[in-house]
Amino acid sequence: MIKTRIHKPVDALSFFFLLFLVLLVLLYYDRIPDLWPRMVRYFLLMGLLAGPVYARGVWDGPFLRFLHSFMPVALVALIYDSMDMVPYINPQDRDGWLIQLDLYLLGTHPTVWLERITAPWLTELMQVSYTAYYFMPIILAGVLYRQGRDEEFDITVFSTILSLYISFIGYMLVPALGPRFTLANLQKIELKGLLLAEPIRQTLDFLEGIKRDAFPSGHTAVVVVVLYFAHRYQRSLYYIFLPFVLALVFSTVYARYHYVVDVLAGLLLALFCVLLGPRLSATFKRLI
User: Fold this and answer.
1) Model pTM above 0.90
2) Residue-wise DSSP of 16-65
3) If you average pLDDT over every residue of the chain, what do you get?
4) What's the rounded Cα separation, in Å, for the pair 141 and 145?
5) Four-CA torsion 269, 272, 273, 275, nearest 10 degrees
6) Mind giving me the DSSP string for 66-89?
């Protein structure tokens, strides 16, 4: 018999986002070809999310605590796979809008303009820096968890995952492939690195697939959110992260993954999440 339930704010956030996806699939049931497998996947993810929460009400221990704390982080990657349904629910790509906004703001195509500084060593550095997105959130969360700073851990994880979920909604509202596809005919110089750039690019394409996930730049939003909380809670990591974040934000455009307006939207999203994330986390904590 369950004696108590140990909820975290991010549990509720993730559950509600999964519920949102379920309702979205039901709304567009006549457009989505893999309706039932997708529904089963979402309910399985809900079960994975709820399992450690309820299990800790019966028997608690270090392993269950770890599983409960990091399960929402692990599920984000599986939830991101759902973005392959964007063309079914919103089939009109909006790259044209984003290209025109870049031209309005800058008077040129940024990825084409950057060819004047393109070099193999810089391409290598930018592609490697781009991968910091996958490690920085885990490193900061891991350090806070190991130090037993539960409140700081919860706020950081909640705000970071909030930025991702809002990014996913952005992909649905403004589907866009990004300049490496839409402006390829204008690029005169192929991006070639030294050793790791091409394997990294191919690995990311394999793992993430080709999705309409340009606007906003989730990479920008996440690393800026993580940098903010590193500055707030773990200052030594902040100084280590800072050059990687600066390089990563630049790499999103240099490596032709994003338009400049994607990056600006990612920065605004990060600002929203660092300002309201802790407050929303506290509100969720009171309600659950």
Assistant:
1) yes
2) HHHHHHHHHHHHTTTT-TTHHHHHHHHHHHHHHHHHHHHHHHH---HHHH
3) 92
4) 6
5) 150
6) HHHHHHHHHHHHHHHGGGGGHHHH
